[in-house]
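Let us practice reading a record.
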Amino acid sequence: MPANLDPAAALMLRVKQGDRAAFAALVERYQQPVMNFIRRSLRDETEAEDLAQNVFLQVYKSASRYVSTAKFSTWLFTIARNLCLNEIRRRSRHPTESLDATHPESENQPLHQFEDKKTSSAPESLLQRELEEKIAQALAELPENQRTALLLCRQDELSYEEIAKVLDCSLSATKSLIHRGREILKQKLKPYLHSGAWKESK
């Protein structure tokens, strides 16, 4: 095993050897990031839970074919993105099944990556919730590749090069997608930018 192998990839190689404890450790580490990514991609809390389970089921089923040529998180989010795309295509073929894909309870779920960890007063909480809904709506209106690029950019452990691998496009195209997506969000969220809810990264 290479000395510079990232810890998650090392765990996945143990899963490949049948180590269920290693798989449980991966699920514990990545379940919430995957859930956040899927929920913000589809804006559907119930579907996000089901799809996240399918992501890890596919990870487990694919363990025998896993090769540690890239970071585990790159491989994982590629699987998550592909399942999201399949769901988006399914909905486009059967629009009557998802006339309103956003469940009311999903709308009220906090977007933790933008959440102010400090205790908020009641008025501040209402403003924060409104801001979160505006961000979710603005993200949902972006083209899929821009939205995915931005969401993956919020995953601190993914570099631009790794995001490009998930998107299956060049590094320059990935940087362009992120730049254009941020510019569109800035325009849509102009009244809220002072809150610092959408911070530049990388």
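A brief commentary: Residues 98-120 have pLDDT under 50 and may be disordered.
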